[in-house]
Write a structure and sequence with these properties.
CATH architecture of the largest domain: 2-Layer Sandwich
CATH superfamily of the largest domain: ATP-grasp fold, B domain
Structural class: alpha+beta
Number of domains: 2
CATH topology of the largest domain: D-amino Acid Aminotransferase, Chain A, domain 1
Radius of gyration: 18 Å
Helix content: 25-40%
Distance between the termini: 21 Å
Order of helices and strands: EEEEEHEEEEHEEHHEEEHHH
Shape: globular
Bound molecules: thymidine-5'-phosphate
Number of strands: 14
CATH class of the largest domain: Alpha Beta
Length: 260
């Protein structure tokens, strides 16, 4: 599928114009960044795995009636998506204390929260994505009350669903980040899930030994990131047994053997 001109380059993905009006092509890079771009690396194979894992999760969300921008995966690194008007908020759902929640509030990593906590961050790299509250979102007109209520409901529903999906494959969903956007249809707009859901945007701990199977392997210099993402893909049933890690890294293998 011919892609149009590049319209945006983010830290881990590039967006191109899509083949039809209202569509885009999302390209997954191998670049990894952390701490608002202060730490950077290229990790061979990461983009291929995130493309595949995000396809799997967003397809499952579509199947349970949660609208997402995902249309179809095009190849190892690209997917066709709906073009949305991105709401400049990152929604973080937390089930277990970790990361900035633990450092900000002095709560040890691994502490189970009695109910999921929703946090909102203003999506702005120059400001380092600051934590905001619902008053900021409403008063600064990033979203209206109906949209915000819908986004919060959807985030908790997605959390319930994904906690179950990951528990079923021996993984704890510690926390994750969501983005949303408006899909315009004439005068009306609907809220859709945007961006990606992958081990880049989730904390995933192996239930058996609490091994980290997510981007903390890069943030914390633990090594073995691609192997961990591959393990997540394998357990989700989207990577055939025996797939050669070298092939993923060079992006030449077909990891689509298991057709729906
Ligand atoms: P945090 O503990 O660093 O605030 O991260 C919470 C969750 O959000 C974690 O699963 C990683 C994810 N996340 C992103 O996807 N993008 C980001 O820019 C940040 C800061 C976190």
């Amino acid at each position: 599928m011919a892609r149009g001109k590049q319209i945006y380059e983010g830290k881990a993905k590039i967006l191109y114009e899509g083949p039809e009006k209202g569509t885009l092509i999302q390209y997954f890079k191998d670049d990894a960044t952390a701490f608002n771009n202060k730490k950077k690396a290229v990790i061979d194979g990461k983009g291929v795995l995130n493309n595949r894992i995000s396809e799997f999760i967003l397809t499952q969300l579509n199947q349970i009636g949660i609208k997402t921008h995902f249309i179809k995966r095009l190849n190892m690194r690209e997917q066709l998506i709906k073009s949305l008007e991105i709401i400049p908020i990152e929604v973080v759902v937390r089930n277990i204390a970790a990361g900035t929640f633990s450092t900000r509030l002095g709560i040890s990593e691994g502490t189970e929260l009695t109910k999921p906590i929703l946090e909102f961050y203003f999506k702005n790299d120059e400001l380092g994505d600051p934590l905001v509250n619902t008053d900021h979102i409403l008063t600064l007109n990033w979203a209206n009350q109906d949209e915000l209520s819908f986004i919060s409901e959807q985030a908790l529903r997605i959390n319930d669903f994904l906690v179950g999906v990951f528990r079923g494959i021996g993984i704890k969903l510690v926390d994750f980040k969501l983005e949303f956007g408006r899909f315009w249809n004439g005068e009306d707009s609907e809220i859709y899930v945007a961006d990606e859901i992958s081990p880049d945007s989730c904390r995933l701990w192996n239930i058996k030994d609490e091994k980290k199977l997510d981007k903390d392997r890069f943030r914390r210099d633990l090594g073995g990131l691609v192997e961990a993402y591959q393990e997540v893909a394998r357990r989700l049933g989207i990577m055939p047994e025996g797939t050669n890690i070298k092939e993923i890294k060079t992006g030449i293998t077909k990891i689509t053997l298991k057709k729906k």
